[in-house]
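Q: Could you fold this chain for me?
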Amino acid sequence: MKSNEEIMEILEAYDLTGSYRAAAELAGCDHHTVARYVKLRAAGGPDREKGQRARPIDGFLPKIEELVERSGGRVRADVVHERLVAMGFAGAERTTRRTVAEAKAQFAAGRRRVFRPWIVEPGLWLQWDYGWGPRIGGRATLLWCAWLAWSRFRVVIPIWDKSLPTVVACMDATLRRMGGVPAFALTDNERTVTADHIARVAVRNPQIVEMGRHYGMTVRTCVPADPQSKGGSESTVRISKADLVPTAANLLEEYRTFGQLEKACHDFCDEVNARPHRETRQAPAAMLAAERERLHLLPKAPFTVVFGTTRRVNWDATVSMNGVRYSVPHELANTRVWVREAGEEVIVTSVAERGEAREVARHATGRPGTPVLDDAHYPPRADEAADRQPRATTPEEAAFLMLGAGAKAWLVEAAAAGARRIRAKMAEAVAFAKLYGTDQVDRALGTAATTGRFADRDLVSILGYQAGLAHVEPSRASEAHSLQPGTGGWGRLDGSEPAAADMTGEEEGR
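A: Sure. Below is the predicted structure, expressed as structure tokens.
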């Protein structure tokens, strides 16, 4: 069957030439084809509903339709072909594949799911879902992805697990970033939200219901195994993973710490909420300001029942749980936190002054008597080398230390070696500085510190050596002069005089 464009070309070629054969040469087809379309046009137009030619497989169409219907449109063409061959079909597998594809298309045509557009109202719906995040230190993370439906405002928070306390902490942080509470929250049927299904009715987790009552929000769940019923949060997960999880497509570097991932998620939210959305043509942050007028007020205190038991952080930035001390960030010293056990881990949650709850520490369960510490929770230690730098407490000490770095090094090394009369030697060095100069004395003190010479006459000896070297041109190797020592001195071992050649070599060595 020719397409409409090909038929028009054939008819145009005939109108130009007036001959079937000439038009066939111009159109690149058979002259009988030209004659057929010319006659169809004369009869009122080409017949586009010409019946299909009979095929050998037509006799097996009822069986193919039965197999497609039984499988719900999922049966494979090679399986159908084996059944047809057993029934006597002698055609090629390619013919079967085409026929099965046609049957599947007809089967799906009457069962295609059609959605009515969702007219969103401000202040009503919040959706959240989870996505796999990057691995940090060999351990997988998760991304909490929340989406306010009307303003399209997104919140992404990295987490380690999907336990109920983590869900509550993320929900509290999300609502406080949004500045209010919507009427409904929609999510999957996780165990933290839905405890069971009875007669297709979702049974809510009592603690999640208590959380919703605390914030004035109703938690709903979508149809099981039907992600299309909450497409907004699914899209947030897809966009977040594309921008936050390192892949070959985005060329991101691996995250070394969980804090780096938290900062990346915060920057991602600032970016996507500040740029205009494709549907609304407005920035979600700007629309959120208008939607806040329809949101409920946030309670001042977060829902902390599921966070565990309260503990006060000691002065050493640790909390005690079952006889084991666990470290927390040192900024939380003398504050109150919540501690709980989750499997083989101990999790510490803090509530900021503005009410936002967040996880601040996570440790493997320890043994009583052995503290579990994380170096990242403490400030960096002071440089030990800087602590060893001497600081003057008297005018005499200040005068000595002002000589330079060599004087400071001499004092440190002399004190470590237990040298005697250090103060007297310091005063002597200050006096020598007036005679030899500050630079020369400081250089001599540095040499004494390096070589460990702290005796009474060592400084004078080094100064005299330096002064003598100032008037001597150092020997340098050249093509005519070697720095290798001569062998003339060997002759003195047996009392004989060195030979002239040996004397020459010895002189060259000097």
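A (continued): The first helix runs from residue 4 to 17.
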